[in-house]
Amino acid sequence: MDFNENSLRIDAEKEIERICKQMRKQVVNDFHKRGAVIGISGGIDSSVVAALCAKVFGPKRVLGVMMPETDSSPESEKLARILADEYGFETLVESISGGLTGLGCYQRRDEAIKSVFPDFNSNWKAKITIPTSILDKDTFNFFQLNVITDSGERRAKRLPLEAYLQVVAASNLKQRLRMTTLYYHAEKLNWAVIGTGNKDEHMQGFFVKYGDGGADIKPIAHLFKIQVFQLAEQLGVPAEIRERTPTTDTYSDEQTQEEFFFGLDFYRMDMLWYAMENGVPPEKAAEVLDITPEQAKRGYTNIQRKIVATEYLRMPPVEVEI
Amino acid sequence: MTTTDTATIRNKLRQFIAETFFIGEGSDDLADADSFMENGVIDSTGILELTSFLEERFEITVEDDDMIPDNLDSIDNLVRYLGSKAV
Fold first, then answer.
1. Domains of chain B
2. Three-state DSSP class for A122?
3. What is the predicted ipTM?
4. What pLDDT, on the 0 to 100 scale, is given for residue B3?
5. Which candidate in A161, A262, A308 is best for mutational testing of the B interface (most B CBs within 10 A)?
């Protein structure tokens, strides 16, 4: 096939029309719901989904819920408000800090961090990263805990198994409490919860099962991140949102999605993935992306590994076969 | 490392793999040269379990730079890696 730098360009107008048609059918005809509830974070994905919902159901049948907590950036709420003003839908702020405290989220997470950095305290900032670019070395995906002490010193250590599992399990309470909050409002209104994950997140497992992965429909789960940006432009999503670096907004230290999970910028990752899916030889992909064939092969392998390893996240509860 | 040492290490690794990733059944089908990842035996969490086991059982430190398939992705690779760490 012909593979070039424009291979992921889509006709955004047509794609929006196609998505909107299906959303209407799924929500109104199949689920008999009358509107849409979306968790809005000021990020590009939830902004695009909110704009699509406003188009499908009209702004009066869209509710954007902001769910900040102790570690959220104030920037998220500011951008979410700009978005709501642009499309004219109603918003609500539901702070989930109290609920998370009640569930022991912060205390359990800090306990795990202290097992790695015993002098850690709540004035420090922390985040989790994958330390190397997936193109530079054929490495396993493992996580590093990065902290900034109250005196500004940066430290980093690989997370051992138990600490890693506990930090992730505690942090995932955030996404699960957000899902619970969204369903409260959706049930109260008889509306549907609309998921905001894109293909990168959905297929590589960058979501929390029954957390942000819990929704009635997922209208952009088939789109690469760089295609979501194309939709955003077509839908007129405000520039401040389109130009913001995608973050996780989950840990106290600012953390990009690239350093936390993907290990590669979106353009090269999406292009490599598309090339892999369409049987483009690594040599050809390398030529287009100005990388070496070995780097292209590593990219293919890493993406494929994540898809396989996270299959369980995408599965519904499995029943015993009769 | 003598042949006996290598055989002992190989057995300890096999036992760990069988008990941890197969929970007792099916590990006989995995050859010493088979890739753990390609055969769906372990994922990224499994790599952390394996690393913790190596550090505790063989009293070594697995450096970040060592976290590559050439060192950790099969029993043969693990035996070679442990040999390089003078186990």
1. 3-84 (1.10.1200.10)
2. coil
3. 0.83
4. 67
5. A161
